[in-house]
Amino acid sequence: MAVTIALSNQKGGVGKTTSAYVIATALKEMGYRVLAVDMDPQGNLSFSLGADTESATIYDVLKGELKPRYAVQKSTLVDVIPSNILLSSIELEFTGVRREFLLKEALDSLKGLYDYILIDSPPALGILTVNAFTAADYVLVPMLSDIFSLQGITQLEETIRRVRNYCNPDIQILGVFLTKHNPRTRFSKEVEGTLRMVAEDLQMPVLETFIRESVALREAQSLQCSVLEYAPDCNAVRDYGSLIQELMQRGLKANG
Ligand SMILES: Nc1ncnc2c1ncn2[C@@H]1O[C@H](COP(=O)(O)OP(=O)(O)OP(=O)(O)O)[C@@H](O)[C@H]1O
Ligand SMILES: [Mg+2]
């Protein structure tokens, strides 16, 4: 059965999609069977993975109009269930009692086919993110070392706690990690120190690994190719490799 990881942070532009894209392709290269699920109406993960967003998407699946396996696209990088802007209407369209469980129920039928399922989520804590948390074994939180990011972390933890109480008792926070990080400036060191204090209070692990800035990462995403092939030695690719190792040392397993 696949281990499901949701990348989440309600703050925009912190590296959720980029992390899902690199981690998914890196796990695939390590030989695991990987599915990427785009739960963001922006469709950025679908784009990065070269998926077609005009045909079947996660929206059709959540609406119950398409069996999940028919929405899976075999992209050249990893298997992906894409999304597009239609997904943004879910908030208004779905008012049923089990609306938090739509994604979980869809992915249950695919879990036997993969080792890892990575879910990208939108920059909000609405029903799409709650669906991602309800379906996930783990949450992984990318974050920038800035003060606004720190302010949002308490709210994020509260949402996860609510999902744990009402929808998914087994959900675990794998950790918070810094992206586009430059550890050399005094300010980022200060923010990192504060993050460690805030996160400890909330019992959210802060990962040792951080991701450095790499232009090659942006280039690979715009070219819709694998950054592991495009720039295998760039800082960010090395950092994501270390991140995966750290996660595995912390107990993340395939087929958990
Ligand atoms: N380590 C990095 N080095 C350089 N650029 C990066 C890095 N990580 C992410 N980026 C770039 O930063 C921008 C925002 O990243 P990304 O789209 O992954 O964030 P996000 O959290 O998914 O945003 P949103 O909240 O809009 O979904 C993108 O242009 C991406 O290419
Ligand atoms: Mg994104």
From TrEMBL:
Coiled coil stretches, renumbered: none
Signal peptide range in chain numbering: none
Record domain AAA: where: 4-173
PANTHER family given in the database record: COBYRINIC ACID AC-DIAMIDE SYNTHASE, P-LOOP CONTAINING NUCLEOSIDE TRIPHOSPHATE HYDROLASE
Name used for this protein in its record: AAA family ATPase
Source organism of the structure: Enterocloster hominis (ex Hitch et al. 2024)
